Amino acid sequence: MAQKTKIEWTEESWNPVRGCTKISPGCTHCYAASIAHRFKGVKGGAYEGGFKLRLVPEQLNEPLKWTRPKLVFVNSMSDLFHKDVPENYIKKVCWVMQKANCHTFQVLTKRSERLRDFLTENPEYAKLENVWWGVSVENKKHGLPRIDHLRAAPAATRFLSCEPLLEDLGKINLRGIHWVIAGGESGPGARPMEADWARSIRQQCEASGSDFFFKQWGGVRKAGTGRTLDGKIYDEMPPRIELPVLRLKERTRLKKELCVLE
């Protein structure tokens, strides 16, 4: 099922894949892994087996059930472009996003090269107006190259999640980037973020015309540190598509069609 989420830049999470593996410093204190380990062994639970990657095909048709438009974070508990997710399964996820076009989907990955290659080979999904394609940018070494990979993909809407922001990113090439999220790490062991790192991203967004969203300062208790940057809350986002929800008859037909997709 989709789940209400406390993530500030979305409304719902949809997880047709669960579990992941760590590949860069941004993964060190992964909130998803912490949640999964907390519920590991709970019989019948979503994370009975821990955080090992697995496909969840029974979740594929969830967006076809919803009766009002939603802003949806795809795979908040995984990474759609993980090497162990079959390409045909990625296409099924994209097919659902294409058909459920009243919803706006946010796909975020650290596997930016696979994202680039997939969208280049499947431009019909890259150019969907209701799908925002994004990459994580936690530092210069691992994060900045991902921006180039994203820019090389023929995506209609591109975004960056600079969270956890682990250092000053310096000059960022924001050409073709529509939205930038910035935020500090939260939870036990959170690494600190300096204000000037976030200010630099904000200033570069203002210069380039990219929307800027300041998510949080973070820390062990993020509720206490808040979301204001220099006395202001930044909630900018790209415009969302506005289409009516499909009628029940059409949604039922699509769910049956999904079941027979190869």
From TrEMBL:
Domain of life: Bacteria
Pfam families (alphabetical): DUF5131 (PF07505)
InterPro entries: DUF5131
Name of the featured protein: Phage Gp37/Gp68 family protein
